């Protein structure tokens, strides 16, 4: 009987020890986060479920960027994770997971321009020539600071709808958008009765600004960050990351035909020096044609 009790106690201690090594995570994300990034969040945690269970849910309210950063940094429990374009100042408050969720695609910008100006843009051969023209951007967008620091003349407004009207009114020369945003911008212009705009087909601007997960440096934040990085890298290795990427960005990326464009690179002075450019598996290669069908595993 004594030996049986000793064995039962040993089993109980082992069970407690195993439970202590696994951490069950509750992850609340901002309710306006794009669905594809939530798919990556859930899939990455599923890949690391041997390290503990998890539950994810949307926040009860939509947090503005500044409030969201503060809630996560202070570990209030109202919000645990945010997706942001990598920014060194925000990374002083939050812990970054340095796996680009968009393979760096956020930093590739194509232009909405007035149709009569298309030949002028097609003739541009250098970034210095492009800087002689003015670009429209959102007043609070992180891109605005990047472009201004790089020497672009930037005209600002709070909303995209206003920028579309300002472009057709010749208040500036081009409206820089992400590859997946440009077609929607053109459709929004048409709804406003604006019909003289087009997506410029010959050039793009690139500044490195990968979209990443950011979590708290306190509490379970470091555990969450470690699990996400391991899970995302496992997904990259087995091809499931590419499947979600293609479902999210494939059609727009294929239509943008970045491999045929003159791509002008500008510095991002707000990017962390710890950005893992040396790991080529994390980044999109825009020098080759992108086929949404071919990229599916």
UniProtKB/TrEMBL annotation:
SUPFAM superfamilies in UniProt: Periplasmic binding protein-like II (SSF53850)
Protein name, entry field: ABC transporter substrate-binding protein
The entry's keywords: Signal
Signal peptide: 1-22
């Amino acid at each position: 009987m004594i030996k049986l009790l000793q064995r039962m106690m040993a089993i109980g201690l082992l069970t407690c020890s195993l439970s202590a090594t696994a951490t069950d995570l509750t992850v609340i994300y901002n309710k306006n986060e794009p669905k594809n990034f939530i798919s990556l969040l859930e899939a990455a945690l599923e890949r690391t479920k041997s390290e503990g269970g998890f539950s994810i849910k949307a926040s009860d309210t939509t947090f503005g960027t500044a409030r969201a950063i503060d809630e996560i940094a202070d570990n209030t429990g109202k919000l645990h994770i945010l997706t942001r374009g990598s920014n060194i100042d925000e990374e002083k408050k939050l812990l970054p997971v340095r796996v680009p969720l968009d393979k760096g695609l956020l930093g590739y910008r194509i232009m909405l321009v007035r149709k009569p100006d298309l030949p002028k843009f097609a003739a541009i051969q250098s970034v210095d020539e492009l800087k002689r023209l003015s670009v429209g951007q959102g007043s609070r967008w992180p891109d605005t600071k990047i472009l201004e620091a790089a020497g672009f003349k930037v005209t600002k407004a709070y909303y995209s709808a206003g920028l579309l009207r300002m472009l057709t009114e010749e208040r500036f020369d081009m409206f820089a958008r992400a590859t997946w945003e440009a077609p929607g911008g053109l459709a929004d212009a048409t709804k406003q009765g604006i019909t003289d705009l087009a997506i410029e087909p010959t050039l793009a601007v690139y500044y490195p600004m990968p979209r990443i997960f950011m979590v708290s440096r306190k509490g379970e934040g470091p555990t969450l960050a470690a699990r996400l990085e391991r899970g995302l890298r496992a997904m990259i290795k087995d091809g499931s990351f590419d499947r979600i990427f293609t479902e999210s960005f494939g059609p727009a990326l294929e239509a943008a035909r970045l491999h045929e464009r003159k791509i002008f690179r500008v510095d991002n002075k707000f990017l962390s020096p710890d950005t893992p450019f040396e790991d080529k598996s994390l980044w999109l290669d825009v020098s080759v044609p992108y086929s949404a069908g071919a990229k599916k595993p």
